């Protein structure tokens, strides 16, 4: 179910704008112009239905942030919005446990707000590890992070931190202080970098040193970023958000580079990378199948290119489902590849034959038209240490399957 966001804002124009942002973030805005209205609307549903609240500091019936107190006391993560950026308002807002505080100064705040909303939802799945030997400074960071929905882990030193990282693959960010047990912080960062790249695990060093020397040392040891103490809350959160967004962006770009655009299956390049990365030597028992749809040109010519695309997507989905335990790819056009490591020739043939029949029996509906398609398959089961050699063998067998009438598997008699 779409999570709700309580938006409390006295200006009708700003309320409409913020509600639109909330909707764009895939969330459901519940708007109110005053504290009274907000209290009434909030009581109409259960608190668990809400992700957070965006609350104007000054409202007609709550002139000094009482609406912030209401949402914070209702355990709603609260983003405060203010008309002014003066020190007294800022201090009054930050004295409360708000997630963030946004002055309505310029158009950029709306961009910041939408990023914040997206992050709040994502953070529920993001692990953050705080490493600091001193309880007070560790707890200060943990308290700030909690407001942002992160899954938080704490460690006093290097050994404990490694154990936690080994156990929890969803940790994307490590924040570490100058003082940690077992090891100097910079040596620990350098060790972590042997295991985790900057694109998969962000490391932020928190430095108490007044000179910039330690900060530079952190960066040279492999940290993504540095925070100098005393830091202000906004800077702490901005740096965290920025580093996590960078990891997300790299992940998105990597996924796009590895996927076939039309079908979402891994592409040829990623297929080779995955197989070669997984096996130093290809196993003695293995099978590789090249699948090519039959008379596909005729489908394009008869029903149009969009119908052809639809058929490709449909078959790709069948492949992804039928071979979710092995390596698959769209090689291009109407050609797909499946690599089955540790499969005997007999077992591989049974799997492919079952799939061939599945495609043959499928009725693909596009624009109320029923389309049938079949597939020819070249299946190589050669022991080989070279994936290209296997492919070339499968290609010859595919050619034979086509030449022998299509809709069949080409195999070598053993
Ligand atoms: N709709 C669509 N068509 C594509 C795509 N990629 C390649 N094709 C078309 O796929 C057709 C492949 O035709 P052919 O190589 O002659 O093969 P075929 O008609 O399947 O015949 P056989 O393989 O011999 O059974 C060509 O017309 C390509 O334009 C795509 O992404 N979408």
UniProtKB/TrEMBL annotation:
<feature type="domain" description="Response regulatory">
    <location>
        <begin position="127"/>
        <end position="244"/>
    </location>
</feature>
<dbReference type="InterPro" id="IPR050469">
    <property type="entry name" value="Diguanylate_Cyclase"/>
</dbReference>
<keyword id="KW-0808">Transferase</keyword>
<dbReference type="InterPro" id="IPR000160">
    <property type="entry name" value="GGDEF_dom"/>
</dbReference>
<dbReference type="InterPro" id="IPR011006">
    <property type="entry name" value="CheY-like_superfamily"/>
</dbReference>
<protein>
    <recommendedName>
        <fullName>diguanylate cyclase</fullName>
        <ecNumber>2.7.7.65</ecNumber>
    </recommendedName>
</protein>
<dbReference type="GO" id="GO:0052621">
    <property type="term" value="F:diguanylate cyclase activity"/>
</dbReference>
<dbReference type="InterPro" id="IPR043128">
    <property type="entry name" value="Rev_trsase/Diguanyl_cyclase"/>
</dbReference>
<keyword id="KW-0597">Phosphoprotein</keyword>
<dbReference type="InterPro" id="IPR001789">
    <property type="entry name" value="Sig_transdc_resp-reg_receiver"/>
</dbReference>
<dbReference type="Pfam" id="PF00072">
    <property type="entry name" value="Response_reg"/>
</dbReference>
<feature type="modified residue" description="4-aspartylphosphate">
    <location>
        <position position="56"/>
    </location>
</feature>
<dbReference type="Pfam" id="PF00990">
    <property type="entry name" value="GGDEF"/>
</dbReference>
<keyword id="KW-0548">Nucleotidyltransferase</keyword>
<feature type="domain" description="Response regulatory">
    <location>
        <begin position="4"/>
        <end position="119"/>
    </location>
</feature>
<feature type="domain" description="GGDEF">
    <location>
        <begin position="284"/>
        <end position="414"/>
    </location>
</feature>
<dbReference type="InterPro" id="IPR029787">
    <property type="entry name" value="Nucleotide_cyclase"/>
</dbReference>
